[in-house]
Amino acid sequence: MEHVIGQGSFGIVVSAYKKEGLAAGTYFAVKVTDKRVLADKSYKASNLLWAERNVLAQLDHPSVGRMLATFQTQSNIFMAFDLYSGGSLFYHVHRRTAPEIANSDRLAVGLHGLSDEAVRFYGAEVVAGLSYMHQRGIMHRDIKTENIVLDWQGHAKIIDFGCSKDLRDNIDASHERDFRRAHTLCGTLEQLSPELLSAVARGAAYGKSSDWWALGIMLFEMSTATMPFTLDRSERDPGANEHQLREQLPLSKSQDVSSLFSSDLAELISALLVEDQTKRAGSQRRGSERVKSYAFFAPINFDRLQSRVPPFVPVVTAGQCPYVGKKYKAMDVNECVHEQKYPPKGRKSKATDPLSKIFDGFDFVNPDMEFLDPNAMEIAGDANARTGVGGGGATTATTSSSSAAGGGSKTRSGLGSSPDTVDQVEGWFGTWDIMKVACAN
Questions:
Q1: Where are the CATH 3.30.200.20 domain residues in the chain?
Q2: Beta strands in 342-399, from DSSP E residues, in sequence order
Q3: CATH 1.10.510.10 residue window(s) in the chain
Q4: Which of 61, 118, 335, 410 has the fewest CB atoms within 10 Å, measured from its CB?
Q5: Strand, helix or coil at 67?
Q6: What residues are labeled active site?
Q7: What residues are paired with 12 via a beta bridge?
Q8: Could you give the CA distance from residue 317 to residue 320 in angstroms, rounded to a whole number?
C-alpha cells in the first residue's frame, strides 16, 4: 500500500484513507506541504498555495480535479482531492501505453504515442475544462501531460493549479476574451508560449492564449511521445529562451506535421502553435468554441462528453494506484510526512505554529464531501459484470467529479465550512490514514 502517486511543486502527494466521520471509507489524494519548506521559500510560496486553494474552491467541472478539503496542523498544510487512480497521461504516453490507446503505426516500429481516437477524447476533455476555466477568468498556466490524470473510469481531469491565475475581475460580457493581465514566469519551459517568455523578459503581460499554446504542445506530445521544440533547460534567461523558441517557428520549419499526424490533427496542432497569439486558435472571443469546431473534434459531442465511453478503462481497485513509476512505489510514507510539535523541545516560545497567521482561514470543506460514496467503484463494477461490460469498455459514469453519489441537491459557495479551533482541526486530521507518498522536487 505504500507507493508514490505523484508530486507537487512545494510538497508531497499522498494517498489517504478516511477512517471515520464525514466521507468515512473513502480514498483521497492529499497534497502535503511542510510549513518549514514554505517558510524557507518566502511568502511567494505561501501565496501560491493560497491562490491554488481559492481557485479550486470555486471550480466545479467534470474535467477539473475536485478539491474536497483543506486543513492544517502545526507542521503541515493538507489539500485533499479525489483520488484519480488511472495514472497521468505522461505515464500512458511515455511509460506503458495500453494497446487500446496506442498509436499503432509508431508502436509497430518500437515508438510510443497515443492513437488519434485517444488524443481526440482526452484532448476534448481538456478543451472542455479550459473553456470552463477561461469563461470564469481562470488561467491554468501549466497544461501538460503530467497534469492530466485519469479517474478509475478513464476520464481525464486537469490537476495541479499551483500556477493558476484568477483574473475574474478582467473578463467581459462575451467571456473568454484574451485577458492579458498575467506577468509571472510560471509553468514548464517546454510548454511556455513565445508571448509569455516575451512578456516576462520585457515586463509586459500575457493572457489565456498561453493555455492554448500549451494544449498544442500537449497534443503533439500525446501523439508522438516527443516535444515539437528543443529548448535549453540550463538557460535561465526568459529572453534567451524566447529567442531560441522563435528560431524554430513556424512549426512547419522544425517539424513535418503532414507526415507525423493525420490531416485533421495536423491542422489543429498547427492552429494552436501559431506564433502570433492574436491569430492562434482559442485566443479570440469565445475561442474555445472555435477550437471545438475544428474537424479533428467533429466526432465529439461536447455536451455529452462525460457519458461517452473512454477509449481506455484503467484496471484498478479501490485505493490502488498501479499506474506510477517503480521508483515511487519503493518510497516509504513514514520517511516523508512528519509532524513536529511547537515550540521544539528545549526552547521557550509563545508561538505554536511558525505560519499560523499566514494560513489563518485556509481550512475548507467542500459540500460534496457529504455525498461521496466510498462503494461507487464496486457498485459500478458489479453493474458492469451484470451487463457484460469490462476490460476495454465501460458504462457511463455512475458518479462524476462534479456530481456525487447519493443524489440530493447541493450548492457550492466557494467558501465551504471548516473546523474552527485547533482541537477540531487536529481531530479532523486524526481521521485520515496517510498511506502512500511521493517526494517533493
A1: 12-84+316-437
A2: 364-365
A3: 89-307
A4: 335
A5: strand
A6: 142
A7: 7, 32
A8: 6
The residue whose grid cell reads 466545479 is: 60
Q: CB of 383 within 8 A of CB of 395?
A: yes
Instruction: With residue 13 as reference, give the H or E element that holds it.
Output: strand 12-18
For residue 250, is the peptide bond before it cis, meaning its omega torsion is within 30 degrees of 0? yes
Report the distance separating Cα 53 and Cα 372, nearest Å.
20
C-alpha closest to that of 50 among 21, 10, 90:
10
Single-letter amino acid, residue 206: Y
Q: Which CATH architecture has domain 89-307?
A: Orthogonal Bundle (1.10)
The SS3 assignment for 432 reads strand
Phi-psi region of 113 (alpha: psi -120 to 50; beta: other; left: phi over 0): left
DSSP string, 113-133: -B-HHHHHHHHHHHHHHHHHH
- Within 13 A of 9's CA, how many CA atoms are on the CB side? 19
Question: What topology does CATH give the domain 12-84+316-437?
Answer: Phosphorylase Kinase; domain 1 (3.30.200)
Q: Please tell me the distance from the alpha carbon of residue 138 to that of residue 52, in angstroms, as a whole number.
A: 11
Beta strand pairing call for 12-18 and 67-72: unpaired
- What tens-digit pLDDT sequence spans the chain (441 residues)? 345 576 666 778 888 888 888 888 889 999 988 888 887 666 578 888 999 999 999 999 999 999 999 999 888 899 999 999 999 999 999 987 899 999 998 888 888 999 999 999 999 999 999 999 998 889 999 999 999 999 999 999 999 998 999 887 766 545 566 667 788 888 899 999 999 999 989 888 898 999 999 999 999 999 999 999 999 989 989 999 999 999 999 999 999 999 999 999 999 999 999 999 999 999 887 889 999 999 999 999 999 999 999 999 999 888 888 898 776 677 776 777 777 765 555 555 555 666 778 898 999 999 998 888 887 776 665 555 444 444 443 333 333 333 333 333 333 333 333 333 334 444 444 555 544 333 222
Torsion of CA 369, 374, 376, 381, to 10 degrees: 160
Give the side-chain half-sphere CA count within 13 A for 192: 30
With b for 16 or more beta-carbon neighbours within 10 A and e for fewer, the 328-367 pattern comes to: beebebeebbeeeeeeeeeeeeeeebbbeebbeebbbbbe
Instruction: Report the predicted TM-score, pTM, of the whole model to 2 decimal places.
Output: 0.85
Rounded Cα distance, 319 and 84, in Å: 10
Q: Which three cell numbers stand for residue 428?
A: 479532523
